[in-house]
Amino acid sequence: MNYKIEKNISEPAYIQLYKLLVNDIVGGIYEYGSKLPSKRVIAEETGVSVITVEHALTLLNEEGYVESRERSGVIVTYKGEDFLGNMQSGRLKSDEIAHKNIHKQVGTIKSDNNAVSGSKGDFPFSVLTKTMRKVMLDYGDKILIKSPNHGCTELRQELCHYLARSRGIMVEPSQVIIGSGAEYLYGLIVQLLGTDRVYAIEDPSYKKIYDVYNALGAKIDRLGMTNEGIASDALLKTKAQILHVTPFNSYPSGVTASISKKLEYIMWAKSRNGVLIEDNYESELTVSRKAEQPLFSMDPEADVVYINTFSRTIAPSMRIGYMVLPESMVELFNEKLGFYSCTVPIFDQYVISQLLKSGDFERHINRVRRQRRQQLK
Predict the structure, then answer these.
(1) What angle do CA 85, 88, 90 make, to 5 degrees?
(2) What's the pTM?
(3) Does 93 have pLDDT greater than 50?
(4) Which of 26, 106, 348, 359 has a Cα-to-Cα distance from 126 of 20 to 30 A?
């Protein structure tokens, strides 16, 4: 292990060791399924303490490069296809390296076992608190300022970058609207599109979709489901012009729409000058190695409104959702609803923005997806 740890630089020894190990794991020196040297061996060969080695290994565990197994040691779990976009030629990207330096301000690194209680994705609590501290240090009293109406620029820009690299959705910040959860965004949709048209929803479907549309006076048509999505005959018969679907994992049926059914939804909308509401709830947590293709990016001529939240991927208390409008609706939204103040505190928006920018959010998603795949074996 020919590692040189510099003692006279500001970067902590465990961060230096962490980066050296990452480069060797990504470069294939330590292959998937192989075992790292013991903590004591690493400490002796690098001239650092065992505690320093433990901190570096905690980071590797937390980000899914390795897994500590009782009586087996530290096993490499990194596979290149699980980390698309996080690495480049075996070296950490500059923004990721800069992010790691944040740990200097935090102190002792805690184990990934300390996760957010009750969160579907079990987001590491240590990462969340570290990010909150960084936001307070970086933004200072700016966290007390009122948010712009559509959401802060930083979050909307980072969402555009994230959607482009993870979903192939290419949009501008002007198309992104931030709101406090999916239900709030459903309400905006009804106000935007009006109550003089029929809204079709899946049957069965998430109850609050119906509740919000009904409370605002929208006409609702329930369309029966098959094991591929909404039944074709129901789509043909409905008088609706707006179709609300949850194509990844419809609740409570658990149905995931097939690619043929997604194309059918697209053709349905185009044939009647309609609008698709794509509620992409929990889609990041798929067990597939390839992310689900969203309706939004399948046909540029179809009007699709994309909705997602961070409630399942970070924590239920994170009442932050976002809506992506097709370009054709941006001007109408600004005219009719642009006066609404953003319902998400600016501090929470900065935190999510930093999680996206640093890569912590995507590393967490990759980690959860790998764990789910392993559970299916």
Answers:
(1) 125
(2) 0.67
(3) no
(4) 26
